Amino acid sequence: MATSASGGAAPASLPVSLDDVRLAQKTLSGVARTTAIEGSRHLSSLVGSPVQLKCENLQRTGSFKLRGAYVRIAGLSAGERRRGVVAASAGNHAQGVALAASLLGVRSTVFMPVGAPLPKVAATREYGARVRMHGQVVDEALEAAKEYAYSTGAVLIHPFDHSDVVAGQGTVGLELLEQCPEVRTVVVGVGGGGLVAGIAVVLKALRPDIRVVGVQAAGAAAYPASLAAGEPVALDSLSTMADGIKVARPGDIPFAIAGALVDEIVTVSEDALSSALLLCLERAKMVVEPAGASPVAALLSAPRSFEGPVTAVLSGGNVDPLVLQRTLRHGMAAAGRYLSLRLRVPDRPGALAALLRELSVVDANVLDVSHVRTDPRLGLDEAEVELHLETKGPEHCVDVSSSLKAAGYRVMS
To answer: Is residue 95 within 8 Å of 119, Cβ to Cβ?
Structure first.
């Protein structure tokens, strides 16, 4: 699904300018890394023109969030710094705020939802923040952070809805334009919109011919409805593996910029996100979280709709190992490289061994076998076998199922 925004040169009334981003770049000198640009032969062959990956997953703290957080905190007055800062996040913003505050000698408190991945909680503490667990989702943690700010005087560092934060994220645009001056399309994941807004400010000021495309998960796509309404609209429900772009409502400041400068917002499925994460790991040798892989998911979903050369921003690499395991398995299934089957076999000695021999003939690698012999659904002479197989693609999956049926097995799924 695609939604058009207006695109074009930056109106003078927008809350962030090119000069703001250039000033942010000076502030970040010696703090944020100039992250690498890596080419992707596989994606280039799909798109039909060169595709480059801007590797913000290799940024300090593992995502672009350090940029905006540092610029925001660096801009505080001495009195504000003494009161400390507070933030709410499930991971990337939390780590960015924690490290930025530590580098600037500012006390930080971060509210994280109870279900936040343990590695992200541990990293936030190690970067120097005091972590408080509150609520089940980030929105609940954010409300707690706002109450804490009100009661203590600490300054709330919003993850995307502040001009300093947007300017900091926009430094990604300055870097990629210098690294890829020939680029014609830039693809960026979108949650609250701070990153795509900052990048769009730079590109539309310096190279208005470059097309800026934002990407949202289909189950958490607040921007299409908001653009249609002409104002930020909150979603009633969110459902996506991509926690980094799982935001119910666009920020007011990013929305004003994106509505004016971003050319298009597209949405991607969960299958596309998991396939993209798998591709980044296998082909680009990059550990990327689902949100960070969303631009790659867009390229996989409609490769010939992007004018090249293309730069896709890998916004973060902070993925929980458990989420990575599940997502890779989902990605393998979506790519036809993982097949789950249930089938009935005769309940007699040697039946399971005969089934496994049949699978060896069709060259399917057995990952897991579950053998059930006692169940009300089964006949007295039946057993049910659940198989998890590693396969070689969609055609091989069809061949495996067909071969089992031809051998007389009753395949249930």
So the answer is: no
The answer to whether 152 touches 83, Cβ cutoff 8 Å, is yes
Residue where one domain finishes, among candidates 299, 332, 365? 332
Q: Where are the beta strands (DSSP E) in 14-166?
A: 37-39, 51-55, 85-88, 108-112, 130-133, 155-156
| Residue 259: both structure tokens together | 């509505």
Q: Which residue positions in the chain have pLDDT lower than 50?
A: 8-9
Neighbours of 50 (CB within 10 A): 18
Domain that holds residue 104: 65-156
| Helix/strand/coil for 365 | strand
What is the domain-level CATH number for residue 135?
3.40.50.1100
User: Which pLDDT score, from 0 to 100, does residue 116 have?
Assistant: 82
Question: pTM (2 decimals)?
Answer: 0.84
Please give the pLDDT value at position 373.
60
Look at residue 204 in the predicted model and tell me its pLDDT: 97
Q: How far apart are CA 52 and CA 307, in angstroms?
A: 13
d(CA 319, CA 7): 32
Active site residues: 65, 315
How many Å from the N-terminal Cα to the C-terminal Cα in the chain? 30
Instruction: Report the pLDDT value the prediction gives residue 8, as an integer from 0 to 100.
Output: 47
Please tell me the predicted confidence (pLDDT) of residue 3: 63
